[in-house]
TrEMBL record:
Compartments (UniProt record): Membrane
Organism: Branchiostoma floridae
Membrane topology of the entry: Multi-pass membrane protein
Protein name: Organic cation transporter protein-like isoform X1
UniProt cross-references to PROSITE patterns, sorted A to Z: MFS, SUGAR_TRANSPORT_1
Highest taxon of the lineage: Eukaryota
Keyword hit for Cell division: no
Residues annotated as transmembrane: 20-44, 167-184, 190-211, 223-245, 251-269, 340-361, 367-389, 396-414, 426-445
Keyword list, A-Z: Membrane, Transmembrane, Transmembrane helix
Domain annotation Major facilitator superfamily (MFS) profile: ranges: 86-509
Pfam assignment, any one: Sugar_tr
Length: 573
C-alpha cells in the first residue's frame, strides 16, 4: 500500500486530526502576511520639502504659504505646478523680493508631512531625493532575504523535518523582528528586515506543506487556499495596525511580537506522517498515526500500523538513506521540466503581484483605506480561487487569470496618458486577476513536487518569486524613461507565465507523488483493463486501428480532462 493510500485508508480525507493541523497552519499564516507587506508603511515616503532656516526660527515648523513662495521653487509634475520636494532658494536679502534667486539642493535637511505618518524609516534617515535609491535598495534586500529563506527552509524541511523547521523559523522571526525595531542605523535595519523576511517565509510555507500533506486529495485545495486566505487576512491586520500605530519602530515591534504565542507549536503541531514514512522514521510515524487515529475516533489494529509501515519502510529503505537536495530537482527529465517551469512562473508572477500591491498605496486617496480595501480583495479572491480550481482544475485557473492580468496591464499602459481613470480601472482588474493566479499557484506548487523534495521545490520556486520581487521597485522606475513601460513589462511577464503553466500536469483529485520515480510518472494516464471497451471496433478518432502483437495490445487513447493523446500498452493475460 502506498503512503497516501495508507494515510487515507485509515485516517480518512479530513478527520479531526487533519482539521486541527490545518487550523494551526491557518492561525500562523497572518504573521507572514503582515511581515511580507509591512515595508509598505515602514518605508513609506510622505510629502516633504526642504527645511528652511528663517531668521529667528529653529527651522522645525511648517512653512506658511507665503514663506513657501519665497523659499521653495515650483516644478512641473504631470502637468501640475507643485512645490519642489528636493530644491530650495538660496536665502539672501534678495530672496523675498524675487530678484536674483538661486536654486540649490536642501542644505538643512527636510520637513515631512505628518498627517499620515508620524515617522517612517524614510523620515528617520532622510531617504529622499538623491538618497531615494537607498529606500528602493532596502526593499529589494528584503526580497533577497526572503528568497534565501525560502530555499534554506525548504532544504531544512526535507532534511530535518517540517515540524522542527517551522519552530526554528518562528523563533528566528521573533528575535530578528524585535532586533529590527531597535536598529539605530539604516544598514542594520535593512539586514535584520531581510532576516525577518527569510524567517517569515520559512515558517509559513513549511506549515503549509504539513497541512497539505496530511489532507486527502478531495480537501487539499480547500486546505491550501484557507492558508493563503489567512495570509491575505494578515494584510488587513497590517492595514489596521498601521492606521493605529503611526511610528515605524512601534509598528515593527508589534508585528514581531505577534509571533511569540506560536512558539507553543512545539507541543501542538505534529510532524508530517507522510514525511516520516518517506524518510524511514517508522516509529515516529506510528506514534503520529496513532495520535491522529485517536483524534479521529477510529481504531487501527496494531498489526495494521506495524505491518504497513514496516512494508513501506522496507520498500523505501534504500531511497531514505540518501539526502535529497536542489540538484535532485534537475536529475530526471520530467521533474527538471517541472522545476524550470515553476521557476519561470513564480519569477514572473511574483514581480507582477508585488508590483501591483505596492502601487496600490500610491493611488489617490487615503493610503490606509486603499491598502485595507486591496487586502480585503485578496481575501475575496482566495474564495474565488478555491471555487474556480474545484470546478475547472489548477491549470486553466492559473494560466487563464494570469493571461487576463497581462491583457489588463497592457490596456492600462496604453490608456494611462489619455484616460487615467480607465487606466486605473484596468490596473485594479489586473491586480485582481494576478491575485487569483498567484494565490492558486501557491496551492498548486507543492502538489507537483514529490515528498522527498517538496520543501526544496517549493522553496526554490518561491526564491524565484522573491528574485522577481527584487526587481519590482526598479521596474517601477522605468516610468521615468517612458510612463507606460512598467505596466508593459508586467503584461509581458504575465504572457510568459501563462504559456509556461500550460506545460504542467493537472493535479485536481490526484494523489501526491512521494518519490522521484513517482514524479516521473506523475500526470501520465494510467490505463486499466476495465477502461477498455472493444478498442478495435469503437475507436471514435481518425487514427490507426490498434496493432496486435504477440501478447501485447498497443492502444491510443485520449484523457477526458486535458485532451492529450498518449500511447500505452497493456499486457494481455
Amino acid at each position: 500500500m502506498e503512503t497516501h493510500d495508507l494515510l487515507q485508508h485509515y485516517l480518512g480525507d479530513f478527520g479531526t486530526f487533519q482539521q486541527y493541523t490545518t487550523l494551526l497552519a491557518i492561525l500562523v499564516a497572518p504573521n507572514f502576511g503582515v511581515t511580507v507587506v509591512a515595508m509598505t508603511f515602514l518605508m513609506a515616503t510622505p510629502e516633504h520639502h526642504c527645511r528652511v532656516n528663517e531668521p529667528g526660527s529653529s527651522g522645525e515648523h511648517r512653512l506658511s504659504p507665503e514663506s513657501l513662495n519665497h523659499s521653495i521653487p515650483l516644478e512641473n509634475l504631470n502637468g501640475r505646478s507643485v512645490y519642489s520636494s528636493c530644491l530650495m532658494y538660496v536665502q539672501t536679502n534678495e530672496t523675498k523680493t524675487g530678484e536674483n534667486r538661486t536654486i540649490t539642493s536642501c542644505t538643512h535637511g527636510y520637513l515631512y508631512d505628518q498627517s499620515q505618518y508620524r515617522s517612517t524609516i524614510v523620515t528617520e534617515h532622510d531617504l529622499v531625493c538623491e538618497r531615494t535609491w537607498l529606500n528602493e535598495m532596502g526593499k529589494s534586500v528584503f526580497f533577497v532575504g526572503s528568497s534565501l529563506g525560502s530555499i534554506v527552509s525548504g532544504i531544512a524541511a526535507d532534511r530535518f523535518g517540517r515540524h522542527p523547521t517551522t519552530l526554528l523559523f518562528l523563533l528566528l522571526h521573533l528575535v530578528f523582528g524585535v532586533g529590527a525595531a531597535f536598529a539605530t542605523d539604516y544598514v542594520t535595519f535593512v539586514i535584520l528586515r531581510a532576516l525577518v523576511g527569510a524567517a517569515g517565509i520559512g515558517f509559513y510555507f513549511t506549515s503549509l506543506v504539513i497541512a497539505i500533506e496530511i489532507a486527502g486529495p478531495s480537501k487539499r485545495n480547500a486546505v491550501g487556499m484557507a492558508s493563503v486566505a489567512s495570509c491575505a487576512f494578515g494584510y488587513v491586520i497590517l492595514g489596521f495596525l498601521a492606521y493605529l500605530i503611526r511610528d515605524w519602530w512601534t509598528l515593527q515591534l508589534a508585528q514581531a511580537l505577534m509571533t511569540a504565542p506560536f512558539l507553543c507549536y512545539w507541543w501542538l503541531l505534529s510532524e508530517s506522517p507522510r514525511w516520516l514514512l518517506t524518510n524511514n522514521r517508522v516509529d515516529e510515524a506510528k506514534a503520529v498515526i496513532q495520535r491522529a487515529a485517536k483524534m479521529n475516533k477510529v481504531v487501527i489494529p496494531h498489526d495494521a500500523i506495524f505491518g504497513e509501515t514496516e512494508k513501506l519502510s522496507n520498500d523505501s529503505e534504500e531511497d531514505s538513506s540518501r539526502q535529497y537536495g536542489v540538484l535532485d530537482l534537475f536529475r530526471k527529465p520530467r521533474i527538471r521540466k517541472t522545476t524550470m517551469t515553476m521557476c519561470i512562473s513564480w519569477f514572473a508572477e511574483g514581480c507582477v503581484y508585488f508590483g501591483l500591491i505596492l502601487a496600490s498605496v500610491e493611488w489617490a486617496g487615503n493610503p490606509y483605506l486603499n491598502f485595507i480595501l486591496g487586502s480585503l480583495l485578496e481575501v475575496f479572491l482566495s474564495a474565488v480561487s478555491l471555487a474556480a480550481m474545484e470546478r475547472w482544475g489548477r491549470k486553466p485557473v492559473i494560466g487563464g487569470t494570469v493571461l487576463v492580468a497581462g491583457t489588463c496591464s497592457m490596456v492600462s499602459a496604453m490608456t494611462k496618458a489619455g484616460f487615467p481613470t480607465v487606466s486605473r480601472g484596468f490596473a485594479l482588474v489586473g491586480r485582481g486577476a494576478i491575485g487569483i493566479s498567484f494565490l492558486s499557484l501557491i496551492v498548486y506548487t507543492p502538489e507537483v513536487f514529490p515528498t522527498v523534495v517538496r520543501g526544496t521545490g517549493l522553496g526554490l520556486a518561491n526564491m524565484c518569486s522573491r528574485l522577481g520581487s527584487v526587481l519590482t521597485p526598479f521596474v517601477s522606475l522605468l516610468g521615468d524613461v517612458w510612463q507606460p513601460l512598467p505596466m508593459v513589462t508586467f503584461g509581458t511577464l504575465c504572457f510568459v507565465a501563462s504559456l509556461a503553466i500550460y506545460t504542467l500536469p493537472e493535479t485536481l483529485g490526484v494523489p501526491l507523488p512521494d518519490t522521484l520515480e513517482d514524479s516521473e510518472n506523475f500526470g501520465r494516464k494510467q490505463l486499466h483493463s476495465d477502461e477498455i471497451k472493444d478498442v478495435s471496433y469503437t475507436n471514435p478518432w481518425p487514427i490507426p486501428t490498434p496493432m496486435k502483437y504477440t501478447r501485447r495490445l498497443v492502444v491510443f487513447y485520449q484523457t477526458a480532462r486535458d485532451g492529450d493523446f498518449f500511447r500505452s500498452s497493456l499486457v494481455l493475460k
